[in-house]
Amino acid sequence: MPHPQVLRDMALFVEVAKRKSFSQAAAALGMPISSLSRRITLFESAVGLRLLDRTTRKLVLTSYGEAYLNQATRLVEEAQRTFDDMVSQAKGPSGFLKIAVPPDFWVLRHLSGVISEFSRDHEHVQIHVDLRPAPVDLASDSYDLAIAIEEPRETSLIVRKVGELENGLFASRSYLLAHGRPQHPKELSQHRFVLPSQGASANWSLTRGSETVAVTVGGPVSCNSLSLARRFVVSGQGITSANLINVERDLVTGKLERVLPEWRLPPTPVYIVTTSRLLPAKARSFIDFATKRLNAILTTAARGMPIPESSDIDPSRDYSTAPVFALRS
């Protein structure tokens, strides 16, 4: 039978190796750096191999450490999941759940309701939500999961596609009255655009049925915030591309109008991202819960229908039949 300290030291090694920092790992674990460093040194002595190379500026894994990390991570995660499952059977999912989400309007309006409903149903789970633009370092910042609107570049992350946000072109009535309403994508080059990404111009592809038109658009204003781009456009600065769900209220109140409504921009996928498939009960429960709710919200928005509040969503109903929506496990 292994000594009880072996698994603990293995977990400490995994935490340090994933963060590549003793100070960050110690802060996450709530223990002194000196104690953590001593335990890792004793662990290396017990193993008989140097797993980490330490310098004053950085910490790197040795070849032995790289090989051992994958095995150790799997064992530690399986042990943690077994423990969480036992706890959840006794009193339901519990613990601290840290989530990163993008600072977009639809997140603030709709995902907040989903999280609130989950919190009411899972009283032993404490939730912390960080508004963080991509990319997010899940491991270094101790996130259990992230909601993302672009697929992470790191191939080691586990990505679950939840749905898609329909995109379109939008402008204020004052701008359209002053500059004219485009009748075809080829006319867009004659208009001012507020670009929701850095640069003076952008290349977009619009489709209508089997027809596709590539256009180059530009304007004097760009920003890295969809919410700020919306404000510029509401004030009459030009046309912008936006998620339909982000401007639904503006369309209802008349602050914005859809430009070339029969033409479609590529949709924006929505993902739930984790560092592992072996998740604690608190994360698994939230992912299952949020996937059903977001399924309903995004599908309803794609159909141009009023979006129900999260409390009005029927979790037994299949909302995934909209043609623009896809799920994968």
UniProtKB/TrEMBL annotation:
CDD domains: PBP2_CrgA_like. Pfam families: HTH_1 (PF00126), LysR_substrate (PF03466). Keywords: DNA-binding, Transcription, Transcription regulation. The keyword DNA damage does not apply. Signal peptide: none annotated. The keyword Phosphoprotein does not apply. Residues 7-62 form the HTH lysR-type domain. It comes from the Bacteria. Gene3D superfamilies: 3.40.190.290, Winged helix-like DNA-binding domain superfamily/Winged helix DNA-binding domain. Belongs to the LysR transcriptional regulatory family. This is HTH-type transcriptional regulator DmlR. It comes from Methylobacterium thuringiense. The gene is dmlR_4.
